[in-house]
């Protein structure tokens, strides 16, 4: 009998959790974060202060915050067990995340900041009809927000199970509710400035732990990385195909199976760079030059962290052996706590528990600010609302509470449902509907409203169709409808829909007579220099004159 209900966290012999240390450490971390956020509360006096920190975030602070965002539970804790089990192939996944950071430096950082907007809608509205552009931006931004939020809150339940030893369903739901509401409170207190401080605080703690853990495993092997790799190969978990841990094949396999996993690498490399809440924080920096510098520094930080996590992953199987690591997909996140328990003891386990939670809290806080900005700026234009500055700030704060509390309640309600497919789907959606639209808006003279609509609505529809018939919905045991099998594709849908998004934008733009070379020139000037070309009216396909820039439209 098929069911959409998720199985509870797979039973494990949790011998490492020390709630008597983890709980006080988590409370202390929550109080510390509150004072970190509160320190910038008085600087929030206008809507700009709340949404983009008054565009006062310097390059160093922004670099650390940017690096903090992709340091998630999946890329730190789960990836360790993934590498311990699948070796070289799992480490390749980290290269895909690194590639996405480089793409962000080259494409998004400086041009996006130079435009001087707030949302994805501001970028689209410079090349398309205002209301249509903002509708499209709101659709894709809020879809990604919803999926990322649900899966992030579900990860909190796993953290409480793994690091606090909590296995009661009601207790897990209550824990997610409390952590989610506390995160909403942080975002409400000081907006983007507070969230930036939160991300910096999270990054400092995370980098410290990663460094200490790396030094511990290196000390265990006399600072010899080659000894770690040799021991990892000796202790590897045997697989039916017989692949070595240090060579390709354990995860990628051969033939079509290899294409399936290569498609995942492609979608991560291309899609993660286009996730709105990651690249739109460049609007908060002091200048385009600082945005580019901070993105470059963030990439170097992330590369260093992922290199350390690869060492820790191989060390996990080297120290623990093949019988003590997580040997199935659902248990991959138990390898790291077991390694920490082995090398650092219960105190280090207890200290790591709040840091695991911070990896989720930081991401959800950034997501929430992005959603609030979209609702306040884009949807207000769509509805024809033009609140005064004081009224807009009140709207922003109300929206933070409304969206945040509603999202947390939905996330708690969705805990029993299999939602793991939301992460790859949201990444694919960013690559399908955001990346082509931003690239065309910045660099193609012929791009117009029709092209934007074809990308966003056509690309999203195609992606959702393929997702329904993918192995995330039916077929495998962990699919949403595990008892059914009506899939016809095994590859990541984004491998098809991301190129399709570019084609849709191209043919959609050519299908319309709308063309505005002056708007493209204005976009080029602003994206490349941060300045503005002389103001000029633009004429849309329907013949109406409207201001050239989104800020002028407001």
Automatic annotation (TrEMBL):
InterPro entries tied to this protein: Na/Glc_symporter_sf, Na/solute_symporter, Sodium:Solute_Symporter
**Name assigned to this protein:** Cation acetate symporter
Membrane topology term reads: Multi-pass membrane protein
**Compositionally biased region (Basic and acidic residues):** 541-554
Which PROSITE patterns does its entry note? Answer: NA_SOLUT_SYMP_3
Q: Where in the cell is it found?
A: Cell membrane
Keyword Lipid metabolism part of the UniProt annotation: no
Compositional bias, Low complexity, is annotated for 531-540
Region annotation Disordered: where it falls in the sequence: 531-554
Chief location bin:
membrane
Alphabetically ordered keywords of this record: Cell membrane, Membrane, Symport, Transmembrane, Transmembrane helix, Transport
| Species of the source | Streptomyces synnematoformans
Annotated coiled-coil segments of the chain: none
Q: Which family does it belong to?
A: Belongs to the sodium:solute symporter (SSF) (TC 2.A.21) family.
Q: Which residues cross the membrane?
A: 16-37, 63-84, 90-109, 136-163, 169-188, 200-219, 262-283, 295-320, 347-375, 396-415, 421-442, 454-473, 493-510
């Amino acid at each position: 009998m098929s069911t959409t209900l998720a199985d509870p966290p797979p039973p494990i012999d949790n011998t490492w959790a020390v709630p008597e240390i983890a709980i006080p450490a988590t409370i202390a971390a929550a109080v510390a974060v509150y004072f970190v956020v509160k320190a910038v509360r008085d600087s929030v006096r206008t809507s700009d202060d709340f949404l983009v920190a008054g565009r006062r975030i310097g390059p160093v602070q922004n670099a650390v915050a940017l690096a903090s965002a992709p340091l998630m539970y999946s890329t730190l804790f789960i990836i360790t067990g993934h590498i311990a089990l699948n070796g070289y192939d799992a480490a390749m996944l980290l290269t895909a995340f690194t590639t996405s950071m480089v793409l962000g430096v080259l494409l998004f950082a400086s041009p996006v900041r130079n435009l001087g907007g707030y949302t994805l809608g501001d970028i689209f509205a410079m090349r398309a009809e205002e209301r249509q552009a903002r509708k499209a931006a709101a659709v894709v931004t809020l879809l990604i927000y919803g999926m990322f939020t649900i899966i992030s809150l579900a990860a909190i339940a796993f953290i409480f199970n793994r690091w606090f030893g909590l296995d009661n369903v009601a207790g897990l739901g209550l824990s997610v509710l409390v952590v989610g509401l506390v995160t909403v409170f942080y975002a409400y207190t000081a907006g983007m400035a507070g969230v930036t401080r939160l991300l910096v605080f999270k990054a400092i703690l995370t980098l410290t732990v990663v460094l200490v853990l790396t030094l511990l495993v290196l000390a265990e092997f006399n600072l010899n990385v080659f000894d770690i790799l040799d021991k990892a190969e000796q202790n590897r978990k045997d697989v039916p195909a017989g692949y070595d841990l240090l060579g390709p094949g354990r995860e990628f396999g051969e033939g079509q199976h290899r294409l399936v996993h290569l498609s995942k690498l492609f979608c991560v490399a291309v899609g993660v760079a286009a996730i709105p809440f990651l690249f739109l924080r460049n609007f908060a920096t002091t200048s385009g030059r600082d945005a580019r510098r901070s993105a470059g520094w963030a990439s170097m930080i992330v590369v260093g962290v992922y290199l350390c996590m690869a060492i820790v992953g191989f060390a996990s199987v080297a120290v623990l052996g093949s019988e003590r690591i997580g040997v199935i997909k659902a248990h991959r996140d138990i390898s790291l706590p077991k390694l920490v328990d082995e090398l650092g003891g219960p105190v280090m386990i207890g200290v790591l528990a709040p840091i695991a939670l911070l990896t989720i809290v930081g991401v959800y806080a950034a997501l929430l600010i992005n959603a609030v900005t979209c609702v306040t700026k884009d949807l207000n234009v769509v509805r024809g609302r033009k609140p005064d500055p004081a009224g807009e700030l009140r709207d922003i704060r109300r929206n933070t509470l409304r969206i945040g509390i509603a999202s947390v309640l939905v996330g708690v309600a969705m805990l029993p449902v299999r939602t793991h497919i939301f992460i790859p789907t949201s990444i694919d959606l960013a690559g399908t509907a955001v990346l082509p639209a931003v690239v065309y808006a910045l660099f193609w003279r012929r791009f117009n409203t029709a092209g934007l609509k074809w990308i966003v609505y056509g690309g999203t529809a195609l992606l959702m169709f393929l997702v329904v018939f993918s192995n995330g919905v039916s077929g495998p045991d962990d699919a949403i409808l595990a008892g059914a099998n009506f899939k016809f594709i095994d590859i990541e849908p984004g491998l098809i829909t991301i190129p399709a998004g570019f084609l849709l934008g191209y043919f959609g733009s050519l299908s319309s007579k709308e063309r505005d070379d002056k708007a493209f020139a204005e976009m080029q000037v602003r994206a490349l220099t941060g300045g503005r070309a002389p103001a000029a009216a633009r004429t849309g396909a329907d013949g109406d004159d409207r201001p050239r820039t989104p800020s002028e439209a407001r």
